[in-house]
Amino acid sequence: MAATARVAVTDRGVAGVLLAGGQSRRMGGGDKCLRLLAGRPILAHIIDRARPQVSALVLNANGDPARFADFGLPVAADVVEGHAGPLAGILTGLDWAAEHAPNCEHLASFACDAPFFPSDLVARLLAAVMGEGADLACAASGGRAHPVFGLWPVRLRDDLRRAMIEEGLRKVDAWTGRHKLVAVEFPWSADAQGARDPFFNANRPEDLAEAESLVQG
Q1: What's the rounded Cα separation, in Å, for the pair 127 and 55?
Q2: CB burial class (10 A; 0-12, 13-18, 19+) of residue 204?
Q3: Residue 10: its pLDDT value, please?
Q4: Where is pLDDT greater, at 66 or 5?
């Protein structure tokens, strides 16, 4: 199944968006993805995992893009103003893909605070969409959905734009509920440190400290 899914990613084309447009309040503000993990910015770890899974990659971040110059990625600010949440970043990624990666039918989204997400994330999401005849897919682990790790068809970008701008919709679940969504369960990993959620996210300083111990372990 995994090999088939990887071929499908290449054939159908999947772009990726790294969601770094949040305000990081629980981390004390600033760019959470620029905090160091094992001596490198968290964003560097995210890029290492995401880049091999997609054919084009953009960073969604607001403010001065120059602070991300060292990462060599295009940076796109939210196309919806007012810190409208992850849906704004997804819409931004869909618009970017339509313009800069027209061969891509889907967009994969990645949170920039979860440095251990699976290396086969996109392949499995795409395989589920194709296998189930679904519109969208999102990751899940331990029975909990992770909608910011999702697969979104570029063809639905105008539908999402209308929902956000004309209806003021902001909740991811409220929009995905209008379409056929499949959730793909990813298992927890087991190592010397114990069981670990592949979507463990570093939202707070203590989470970052735990991530550091996981890397070193």
Answers
A1: 16
A2: middle
A3: 44
A4: 66
End-to-end CA gap in the chain = 31
Phi, psi at 46, each rounded to 5°:
-60, -45
In the block, residue with structure tokens 């001065």: 64
What structural domains and CATH numbers belong to the chain?
Answer: 2-216 (3.90.550.10)
As a whole number, the mean pLDDT across the chain is 88
- pTM comes to 0.88
Q: CA-CA distances (angstroms) from residue 57 to 48, 73, 134, 181, 217?
A: 11, 7, 23, 23, 30
Predicted pLDDT of residue 138: 98
Task: Determine the Cα–Cα distance for residues 31 and 19; give it in Å rounded to an integer.
Answer: 11
Strand partners, 190: 195
CA-CA distance, 91 to 158, in Å (whole number)?
9
Is pLDDT of 128 > 60? yes
Backbone φ and ψ of 174, nearest 5°? -65, -35
